[in-house]
Amino acid sequence: MSDPLLSQPPEPRIHRLIRGVDPAFNAIETALVTFSAVSIASYYVLEGKSPISEGDYCTLETSLFPVEVRIPLGGPLHAALAGKRPDQIDIDIVGRSDHPPQYPHETDGFKNALMNAVCPAFVLIYAEHETRLKDVLGRRNTWPSFFEFCANIRNALSHGGAASKVQSCQWRGYSVAPDTHRDKMVIGSEISLADLILLMLDFGDEVAKLGASPETSP
What we know:
Elements: E1 14-19, H1 25-47, E2 57-61, E3 67-72, H2 75-81, E4 88-95, H3 108-118, H4 120-137, H5 145-157, E5 162-163, E6 169-171, E7 174-176, H6 178-181, E8 184-185, H7 193-210
Antiparallel strand pairs: 1-4, 2-3, 3-4, 5-8, 6-7
């Protein structure tokens, strides 16, 4: 059974420490390295320099919940460029600000491109654990609502963001169903990059409870 907390919105003021043994580590690391590389490249193209240093972070708004997600910008990328992996990744979930973050070069086109670049990280985490999930949970039509939700999102990500095959399920109060979401664009329109990061964290937590994590390198 999934954690009952997965039926409620995420709480603010939560600090998440993701280590190499966490089932979500590979996907989160991939997402952050990709996000940082694309963001830094955009600054260089437009300004000829990047203001981002190793300890900086970026605040992303969720679409589904009254929280924001703070992710590190420089750390995971600097480690990757040095041929290393971070020992841990720190992510903060904070209450939504009355003054949402403003980024000088943010455009719809850039946001869409960034979303498309980072979204495969969720496909990665799902693929890493899908076989074990089937071994533990059996046929997909018997899966708990949370894992069915993740399967729906994985399918949407593989079909340009549209929910092509939908089963009724929910995650933290956000529900999808065949009559309301079949063939509807959900990635980018209803589910933001910050929401996807939260979903990866929850997926990692639930997979760990099943003992479904493959060996990972710290």
